């Protein structure tokens, strides 16, 4: 398939499938996966400069991994913050964890692509989605469990939003953090969840 046609087809797939997490308004009952432990610690720094073409290794974690509900998918295992309610999403490849009594959420989703897409192009497709308040900033790529991921930061409905994503084979993966409040606490939550990601072998 020609590059232009492949990119257009991929954009259609992302526009139709990757918008599902932001649209989930009435999830199924919470999962029975039990929370355990504690994940509080001092926040770590986050990159804010413009992305470069070279991979950027993630800084040494300064927060302990999250110890809440665990999910296991064909692509990865990961945990959500302790005490948050875990919901099954509108598709088998989607999970949504929400802080009780608040609007803070962490969402995981994946979607099959028609063909592999370069990481900068994948980031651009996510940044162009219509559910951002305005086009987000693209941050330095980050390495999560040895895999290079793009990072986007912006807002949705006035709530700070950060997206970390990559592809595994021909599947696009995104972890979306929509967390209000102080930047230090928000970054602590993001870092603690990313510290739990373990990719399945390809």
Main traits of this protein?
single chain; 202 residues; alpha+beta; 7-stranded antiparallel sheet; 10 strands; 20% helix; 31% strand; globular
Topology as H/E string?
HHEEEEEHEEEEHE
Q: How many β-strand stretches? A: 10
Which stretches are low in confidence, meaning pLDDT under 50 for 5 or more residues running? Answer: 1-13, 15-53
Question: How far apart are the termini?
Answer: 24 Å
Shape: globular
How would a textbook summarize the main sheet?
7 strands, antiparallel
Tell me what the CATH architecture is: 3-Layer(aba) Sandwich
CATH topology term:
Protein Transport Mog1p, Chain A
Quickly name the level 1 CATH class: Alpha Beta
What structural class should be given to the helix and strand makeup?
alpha+beta
Walk across the major sheet and give the strand order: 3-4-5-9-8-7-6
Looking at CATH, the homologous superfamily is Mog1/PsbP, alpha/beta/alpha sandwich
The helix content, as a percent range, equals 10-25%
Residue-averaged pLDDT? 79
Q: Beta-strand percentage?
A: 25-35%
Number of domains: 1
| CA-atom Rg in angstroms | 16 Å
């Amino acid at each position: 398939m020609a590059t232009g046609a492949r990119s257009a087809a991929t954009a259609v797939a992302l526009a139709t499938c990757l918008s599902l997490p932001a649209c989930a308004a009435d999830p199924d009952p919470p999962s029975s996966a039990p929370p355990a432990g504690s994940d509080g610690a001092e926040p770590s720094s986050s990159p804010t400069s413009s992305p470069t073409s070279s991979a950027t290794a993630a800084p040494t974690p300064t927060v302990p991994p999250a110890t809440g509900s665990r999910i296991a998918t064909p692509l990865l295992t990961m945990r959500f913050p302790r005490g948050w309610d875990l919901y099954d999403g509108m598709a088998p490849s989607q999970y949504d964890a929400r802080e009780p009594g608040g609007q803070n959420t962490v969402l995981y989703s994946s979607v099959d692509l028609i063909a592999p897409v370069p990481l900068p192009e994948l980031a651009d497709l996510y940044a162009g989605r219509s559910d951002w308040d305005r086009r987000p900033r693209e941050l330095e790529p980050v390495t999560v469990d040895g895999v290079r991921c793009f990072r986007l930061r912006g807002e949705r409905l006035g709530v700070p939003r950060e997206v970390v994503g990559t592809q595994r084979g021909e599947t696009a993966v995104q972890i979306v953090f929509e967390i209000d409040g102080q930047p230090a606490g928000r970054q602590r939550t993001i870092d603690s969840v990313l510290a739990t990601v373990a990719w399945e072998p390809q």
